[in-house]
């Protein structure tokens, strides 16, 4: 069996464990046990746990931004890629939190961000605006998805405890927002925030042209 196949199997097993046990349940020992090997065998392919986890995180994004759309504006590209990133992370348990924890400087992350940065520069952005505009958008996507997955994992009961009810009575604006979140559709909330981010970035680009 080739080294490449074995390495892919290690990543695949780690990803299966992530889906089954969550981020806290993913360990080198459990990956080795799943593959029926000793832990030192994993170090032939990954220098340490962080290297393995970065490879797993990179795999989460391997299907994102693999196609181009002719005539797409940078706003349309950002919206499409942002939605693809969110869906890719939602496809795996703790996907967004795992990506944020590992923060891989990897092939897929570089490929996705390069496309977004290039589109902003073609629209007239300087290097600073293109870089921060891209990563601020991706940070929003990851942050929203972390909250979305956590909320789905432990969705609060509408009939809250007396302490929560008292808190909501004391802070009616927070209660109003909480009610909106409980009744909202996650896709709608995601699009709302993403459009706000893109509108702000569009304003920044327009202002820099004056």
From TrEMBL:
Report the DNA-binding ranges: 27-46
Signal peptide feature range: none
- Name of the featured protein: TetR/AcrR family transcriptional regulator C-terminal domain-containing protein
What the entry lists under PANTHER family is as follows: HTH-TYPE TRANSCRIPTIONAL REGULATOR RUTR (PTHR30055), TRANSCRIPTIONAL REGULATORY PROTEIN (PTHR30055:SF151)
Its keywords, alphabetically, are: DNA-binding, Repressor, Transcription, Transcription regulation
Residue ranges constituting the HTH tetR-type domain according to the UniProt record: 4-64
Biological function: TetR is the repressor of the tetracycline resistance element; its N-terminal region forms a helix-turn-helix structure and binds DNA. Binding of tetracycline to TetR reduces the repressor affinity for the tetracycline resistance gene (tetA) promoter operator sites.
């Amino acid at each position: 069996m080739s080294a490449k196949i074995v390495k892919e199997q290690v990543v695949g097993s780690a990803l299966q464990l992530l889906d089954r046990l969550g981020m806290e349940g993913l360990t080198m020992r459990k990956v080795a046990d799943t593959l029926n090997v000793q832990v030192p065998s994993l170090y032939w392919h990954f220098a340490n746990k962080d290297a393995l986890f970065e490879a797993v995180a990179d795999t989460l994004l391997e299907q994102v931004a693999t196609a181009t759309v002719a005539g797409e504006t940078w706003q349309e590209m950002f919206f499409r890629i942002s939605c693809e990133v969110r869906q890719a992370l939602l496809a795996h348990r703790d996907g967004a939190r795992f990506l944020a924890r590992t923060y891989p400087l990897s092939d897929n992350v570089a490929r996705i961000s390069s496309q977004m940065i290039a589109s902003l520069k073609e629209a007239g952005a300087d290097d600073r605006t293109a870089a921060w505009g891209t990563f601020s958008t991706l940070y929003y996507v990851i942050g929203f998805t972390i909250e979305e997955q956590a909320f789905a994992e432990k969705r609060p009961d509408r009939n809250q405890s007396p302490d929560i009810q008292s808190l909501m009575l004391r802070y009616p604006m927070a209660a109003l927002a909480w009610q909106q979140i409980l009744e909202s559709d996650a896709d709608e909330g995601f699009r709302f925030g993403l459009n706000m981010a893109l509108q702000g970035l569009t304003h920044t680009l327009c202002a820099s042209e004056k």
